[in-house]
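User: Hello! I'm new to structural biology and keep hearing that structure can be predicted from sequence alone. Could you demonstrate with Bifunctional protein PyrR? Please show me the input and the output so I can see what each looks like.

Assistant: Of course. The first part below is the input, the amino acid sequence of Bifunctional protein PyrR. The second part is the output, the predicted structure written as tokens.
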Amino acid sequence: MNSPTFSTPTSSIPDAEHLYIQLLAQLRAHVVTCALPPVLIGVHRGGAWLAERLHADLGMTEPLGTIDISFYRDDFATKGISANVKTTDVAVDLMARDVILCDDILNSGRSVRAALNEIFDFGRPARVDLAVLFDRGGRELPVAARFVGGSSEFDAAYKLVLERDSSNRFCFRVPRRVSPVSQNAEVNA
């Protein structure tokens, strides 16, 4: 009888709560220097959770924005639309405002590119800064975050998926990526 083999990432799994505390400290130091509070906008799903928690912990009163980048992705034509499309809600005029775009994981930079395209549909901000909980490397586009909870190269065979518990504490789930070859085999089976 063969025992199942389990694999684990070759990279250590980051502590999402520790990263959040690091990120919050950076943003707290930044926000006090701003003449007008920046507008926080979170990318659904994990980035929206991050922005929501930062908004509360920073005591911000400006409405929080959330965006769903599904229709702005550069792989929309090949992947189609997800069944989990969320509502975009940006209730503030972004014209000439400073925006902090929040996302949970920075990897290729393609999600950030899509988010920037959507943000500019709501006006032309004076500045857009990126805040991420974790930068895992693997950039395909020239994108860098100004505010980062932590960063390191992370095993490309695994995803990092932000989760939160009932007390709104963050942690990462680390599922193995499904390769295109195994996806095709499952579809053809």
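User: So the tokens describe the shape?

Assistant: Right, they're a compact way of writing down the 3D structure. Reading them back into a model, for example: The helical segments are 16-31, 46-57, 76-79, 110-119, 180-188.
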